[in-house]
Amino acid sequence: MACVILKTARRPSLSPLLTRMRDREPGLAASLLGGAVAAGLGFGSFAVLVMVLWVSSPYPDSGPSGALHIAAALWLLAHGVELLRTDTLTGAPMPVGVTPLLLMLLPVWLVYRAARVAVDAPEDADGPPPVPAQTACTGVVLGYLGVGCAIALYCSGGELRPQWLWVTACLPLVATGAAAAGVWAAYGCPREPVLGALAVLPGQVRRLVFGGDERARLGTAVRAGGAAVAVLLGGGALLLAVALVWHGGAARASFLQLTEGWTGRFAVLLLGVALIPNAAVWAASYGLGPGFFLGAGHLVNPFASDPAPLLPPFPLLAAVPDAGAGTPPNWAAGLVPVAAGVTAGWFVARGAVKRPAPGAPASARWSATRTAGVMLLTATLCAAAFALLACMAGGPLGVSALARFGPVWWQAGGAVGAWTALPGMPVALTVRVWRLWRLRKPGGDIPAQGARTGAAASAGSPKDHGKAGDPATAKDAAKAKNPTKAENKADPEGDAEAKGDTEPADPGEAEEAGRAANGTGKAKATHTDNGTQAKATQGKGAQPGSGKEADAGRVSTARPQTMTEDDESYDVLPTDDAFPSDWHDDLARASRWAALREVAAPPEPPAPWAGPDRTEPSPGAPEPPDTAG
Fold first, then answer.
1. Considering only CA atoms, which of 393, 398, 392 is closest in space to residue 296?
2. Which helix (H) or strand (E) element contains residue 523?
3. Which of 436, 336, 415, 426 is nearest to 375 (CA)?
């Protein structure tokens, strides 16, 4: 028994690996569960919406199984999967490939949140380490794809069936992209993975485009490109709103004609809201010039619009411009890409010129050539982003005349690149020169004469130190400036107090002792019951003719100072000048010399009967001679 107790008491502590496993769930299992839950929540949200519409419909065409099949089809369509509609009049399956971009936000956000939670980053340093990025991302994607494949198998038995080529391409791509973004955000958005992706580029191309500061250039290009794409989408939404108001009567008639029951009208309204981002991309492509297709062979652009084929009534289709040649109101849509290019150029110019520190001269981060290179990189990123949006916003809605809807992705992307570079290049170069001139011009970033910058702000001016003359502060500053010299100097206050305990001190002797203790200081005599105490205040002043301001020697001008020939020069010269050389004018030079003369001028010697405050006679001092008679 004693042996068992001894072995139990000497059992070694758990290893770090076992401690981590004890403090948390296994990272891969939790990630798998998080991905499966995200897929289930997304499908459940679509199922609830479809079931509510089915229950409220007065004439349901199918049972609950049909409603669930439609929910599964919508869930797959939200991931970009193309579907096949089998219940057609001809019996031939019809493709449905237009993805409502608003529906895509829900599954993408769920996967993003699941990946962030799977990392489980600790809030404090004592917590367990986060799950590795590769483990969390892989687990979430595999869990999501497991449930997604089950939903696709269930949907394959309905009227809207998925195409498996699109399932194997789009579903993993959306899940991986959203999970990678969530893991990256959970780790604090590090730049190393993004910069590591640039290793695929050849070395010469990478040096030519990015140079040595690829972080700053890539970050500026991403911000400028994001701002330009946001302006494009916002401008497209504005064009859509104007077109709907312009064709308000036709849009309202199509909405009322499509269905009669409130349940059907509510479903049409939800479908129209889900397609608003798609319509904004179409409108932006219309403003860019290439336009969009409203059926195969029917192109709509600002210069000419072909007659649209026979389409079912729908409110968003009613906002399409009328067929025929373009008019000035149609050409005004070109202001949207111009605004996007100007916005991109402004952001690039802001990154090209860095704001200097207070008191430092303005300088350009990049030359004009490098700024132009960053502008071209911004145009490339804008073209790639908008081409991806245009690809997802369009697709087929059938065969023959309905085989193509929306913009052509490569045409829209090329137009965005050109519109971003052409207006953005002169804007970026012009704003760069203007920002440099604004920062370097007199009064741009130079503070006023009363302001303090650099060493002058920390040291202060002689007049400022002279106000409210604080002997303790002056003494501490002098000690901090030269500790050895401050220790070697005698303490006039302590010596005077010790002397006052033994015998009264003469005011003149006390003043001479104070001068000996500090060559640039002064002594003042005060009388107490025990005798006379001599106190010396310490300070330094600038030598006249030195051509510089007074040093931070803490000159106290609360009481007159006595300058001697033993005044020492600067121990440490000021590193910064509060008034740079470009600002030396007659007024500044006169004010500086006036300040130096005021500090360096020796005061009148005190009368022997003057008290500490130089206003009333000291107690016991002889009366001044009467010279009136």
1. 398
2. strand 522-527
3. 426
Report helix, strand and coil shares of the chain as percent, to nearest 5: 60, 5, 35
CA-CA distance, 369 to 176, in Å (whole number)? Answer: 37
Question: d(Cα 525, Cα 6) in Å, to the nearest integer?
Answer: 80
Q: Which phi and psi (to 5°) does residue 343 adopt? A: -65, -45
Looking at every residue in the chain, the average pLDDT score rounds to 74
Pairing of the two strands 160-162 and 94-96: unpaired
Closest CA to 109 of 58, 185, 161: 185
Show the beta-strand stretches assigned E in 320-465: 324-325, 353-354, 363-364, 405-406
Taking each helix axis as running N to C, give the angle between helix 248-258 and helix 262-274, from 0 to 180 degrees, rounded to the nearest 10. Answer: 130
Q: Specify the DSSP class assigned to residue 534.
A: E
Amino acid symbol at 526: T
Listed in sequence order, the residues at least 6 apart from 253 whose beta carbon sits closer than 8 Å to its beta carbon are 313, 318
Phi (first) and psi of residue 374, to 5 degrees: -65, -35
Q: What is the 3-state secondary structure (H, E, C) of 226-237?
A: HHHHHHHHHHHH
Lowest mean pLDDT among 115-119, 289-293, 410-414, 453-457: 453-457
Q: How far apart are CA 358 and CA 455, in angstroms?
A: 11
Identify the CA nearest to 390 among candidates 95, 169, 98: 98
Please write the tens of the pLDDT for every residue from 430-453: 999 998 888 776 554 433 333 444
Q: Which residues pair with 535 in a beta bridge?
A: 524
* First CA to last CA distance, the chain: 118
Structure tokens belonging to residue 290? 């290439």
Tokens 């199509």 belong to residue = 254
pLDDT tens digits for 381-432? 999 999 999 999 999 988 888 888 999 999 999 999 999 999 999 999 999 9
